[in-house]
Amino acid sequence: MSKRVIRFEYIDGTVKLKKLSRWTKQVGGINPFLRKGEFAHISNLKSVTIPEGITALGWCTFEGCTNLTTVILPESLTIIGSYAFRGCISLRSINLPKNLKTIGEKAFGNCRQLTSITLPDGIDKIANFTFSGCISLTKVTLPEGLTSVGAYAFEGCSSLTSISLPESVTTIGSYAFNACGGLTEVTLPNKLKRIKQYAFCSCIRLEKVHFSDSIESIEAFAFYGCCNLTKATVCKDIELWQNAFDPNTQVIRVA
Asked: CATH number, domain at 250?
């Protein structure tokens, strides 16, 4: 069995992985990847360039690299593992490759200086906690074909003022946008079926929500604590759980 070897340069806070030809043979037909925690918690790591041919970043690959500001990802990358960049508090932006298919839980959690993110077309689900605690995030671009936003996905993204959800989204998970204190307006897609509990709870500046007729249920506390949402117009057949809205919100059912 061939031993997997990573060769890289590390100079003045910069990691540059060598070309894939420098690696040993793939083992058991598994595609090349960076394993769990490969560069985690290297506090003076500032820049990373990953070569073409790498298909996956494992769990916690760059977790806790608090001075990491620049990451160049290859177009061959299809998977970013859970916790991969969690706690990279100096990371301001990152370009995700067009072939990316999966982003794991908490992959960018607590990236406090991340200001914008564009998900490529291959992403059909946002995992739980993916961008939670990204307090500087102001712009999110989501692809058509996205079907669900996971629990706590954008919780605490307090600089986010608006969100445009693709028409393909059918489920918004529990606490998905909880405590997004800067959010003022939301338009919900026409295929949306379910808004889970606490999904938009404590969005204290939320003033306007455009509810689609496709929504079948709004769970408990989904919009509780949205003290500036004075009126909500929903379909008469919708299932409203107890305390789905704040007591200050007038709920109007229409045919």
From this structure: 3.80.10.10
